[in-house]
Write a structure and sequence with these properties.
248 residues; alpha/beta; 4-stranded mixed beta sheet; 3-stranded mixed beta sheet; 7 strands
Length: 248
């Protein structure tokens, strides 16, 4: 009896093993586990360099009082207004050739620039801070002590440079800290648009500037003197209003 029981148990185990093998064949192989995607590092794409644009900046030489061209590379702009600002800022920063004179004293910079449809370029200058705050409503007076020649040269360096690099510019209007100013140094009238004096530009090919700026002479900066109340502004009101409207 025990022998028959053991035999029956062996047969039962064989049947179970056979059924298990048959069941696996019917179901097919078990699906493989889904592959885990391998994360690949994102390639870093370097920024596209902005191509440079060759311009001619005009600065005075003490040897002949003419405005001589200095070749300079500025970043290419997306439109004429951005290009106007780049060129005007480069003039205010001064030359790199040591034999040329910086038109504006240290501390002056470009606050903004706008191009109107009638050929007027509005250049907004940012002067150094005043030693004493100006009373509200007080007109902007002279901001540095300079002779009439130095003041006229600074204005014409801007006007001639803009006219030579942007042919559509025929006149410029200068603002100081966003406001109409009577004068920069007490001599030239800024209340009217100023035409470039192209006769002061030396007819010569522009010379390349050194890679790094060198110290150049500049007009002396001094505190603003008191000035009498000005006469009503003669700047064409439409020019200033349009400039501020386009800036907005």
């Amino acid at each position: 009896m025990p022998r028959r029981f053991a035999l029956a148990l062996v047969v039962l185990l064989l049947l179970l093993l056979l059924a298990l093998l048959l069941g696996r064949r019917v179901r097919g192989p078990s699906p493989a586990a889904p592959a885990v995607p391998t994360l690949k590092p994102t390639a870093v794409i370097p920024p596209t360099p902005i191509p440079a644009r060759k311009v001619s900046l005009y600065f005075e030489s003490p040897a002949d009082d003419l405005l001589h061209p200095e070749a300079r590379d500025v970043a290419a702009a997306v439109d004429d207004v951005a290009f106007l600002r780049s060129v005007a800022a480069a003039v205010i920063d001064g030359p790199r050739r040591p034999e040329l004179v910086r038109p504006f004293p240290e501390g002056w910079s470009l606050r903004g620039a706008y191009l109107l449809r009638d050929g007027i370029a509005v250049v907004d200058l940012a002067p150094p801070p005043l030693a004493a705050p100006r009373e509200p409503g007080t007109p902007v007076g002279p901001r540095w002590q300079a002779g009439s020649h130095e003041e006229d040269t600074a204005i014409q360096a801007l006007a001639v440079t803009l006219a030579r690099n942007l042919p559509e510019v025929t006149r410029i209007v200068l603002l100081v800290a966003g406001e109409a100013a009577e004068t920069l140094g007490g001599h030239d009238d800024l209340l009217h648009p100023i035409a470039p004096d192209l006769g002061r530009a030396a007819e010569e090919p522009p010379l390349e500037a050194p890679a790094t700026p060198t110290a150049t002479p500049s007009p002396a900066l001094s505190p603003s003197p008191s000035v009498p109340p000005p006469t009503p502004s003669a700047v064409p009101p439409g020019s200033i209003r349009r400039a501020r409207a386009e800036r907005a």
